[in-house]
Write a structure and sequence with these properties.
Helices cover 24% and strands 29% of the residues. With 203 residues, the protein is of the alpha/beta class.
Length: 203
């Protein structure tokens, strides 16, 4: 039996502990990542929620942004939730003037697309590849995806309300991103999907 994959969680802001718990439940060994040297030996990485402009500044301050960007370009699998989705986007709308992303997914993401904190909400979405049972999505100052390139697979869209049809989960190769926070609900299927992506990459 092969060893469990080692998956880092960028531990500068956001639901780090919750992601580590979800990764353990999905059969992976989770590890917090704050510094460049902690990227060594990872089979994948989770980019948690938080505030994307702050995370960008913290990654620069800790010296982890450029090594992480290089690792992603070299094929390191990554899963980004909420702000993590923004970090994986090639293009961002409504970002700060100096905001940069790690990139990797050919998509345009709009920050705070559903509104400010008071507009946070929860709702069920069906995510391709996870069966008929919907994922309960927790959207907190969440982004949505405005458009995607041909290589991007749309996995989920908002199903009702004013935002119906908006894209909230995507995949491009070994990069996965959701607008919502599955680590907050106890439903481990998104993390299980990511662990499968990581394991497929190892084969």
């Amino acid at each position: 039996m092969s060893a469990s994959p080692t998956i880092g969680v960028l531990a500068l802001q956001g639901d780090v502990r919750e992601h580590l718990v979800a990764l353990a439940g999905a059969g992976a060994q989770g590890r917090p990542v704050r510094r460049p040297e902690e990227l060594a030996g990872l089979d994948g990485i989770v980019l948690p929620g938080g505030e994307s402009t702050t995370m960008d500044k913290l990654m620069r301050a800790f010296g982890v942004r450029d090594p992480l960007r290089a690792a992603l370009r070299a094929g390191l699998p990554a899963y980004g939730s909420c702000a993590g989705m923004i970090l994986l986007a090639d293009r961002v709308l409504d970002g700060s003037a100096d905001q940069e992303t790690l990139g990797g997914i050919d998509m345009t993401v709009r920050r705070n697309a559903f509104g400010r904190q008071v507009a946070s909400f929860e709702g069920d979405v069906h995510l391709d590849g996870l069966g008929d049972r919907p994922i309960h999505g927790v959207f907190i100052r969440a982004p949505w995806v405005e458009d995607v390139g041909e290589a991007v697979e749309v996995l989920a869209q908002v199903e009702d309300g004013e935002a119906a049809g908006r894209i909230v989960a995507v995949r491009q190769g070994s990069l996965l991103a959701t607008s919502f926070h599955p680590e907050m609900t106890g439903d481990g299927r998104v993390h299980e999907l990511f662990v499968r992506i990581v394991e497929d990459r190892q084969r």
